[in-house]
Amino acid sequence: MYVKQLRKAELLETIAVICRSPDVHQYRIGITAEPSVRRRSYEKAVKLKYTHFVIIASELTWPEACEIEEALQTGACGTRTSRAYRKYDPTVRDNEYVCSKGGSERFIGRDYSVYMTWK
After folding, report:
1. pLDDT tens digit sequence for 33-68
2. pLDDT tens digits, residue range 84-104?
3. C-alpha span between 86 and 106 (Å, rounded)
4. 97: Cβ–Cβ under 8 A, 6 or more apart, which residues?
5. At CA 38, angle to CA 34 and CA 44, rounded to 5?
């Protein structure tokens, strides 16, 4: 385990606070090695149209980023009655967790960021 439980709890609370806003209708959590490129891809995706993007944790190795991403996704979606669960993108919230490469395998070895994007 790379990341301390306390930090995971703090990051999960950050997600919960953002989800409390009535302006947040749907969100996703992910990892990337290129935050600015990832943000533009979400804004331009006709189907998704996520308008907000925030870095939750940065300067991570790929294993650390995967660990945090999994903790946040499973924590946010662990209770089906929670606001965080209801607002998580319904096309992915019930899927089994699989760590992505953060955009591309060519980024292995670079710093990664965990992000939250919402609309």
Report:
1. 877 677 666 666 556 778 888 889 888 888 888 999
2. 999 999 998 998 888 876 555
3. 34
4. 70, 73, 74
5. 150
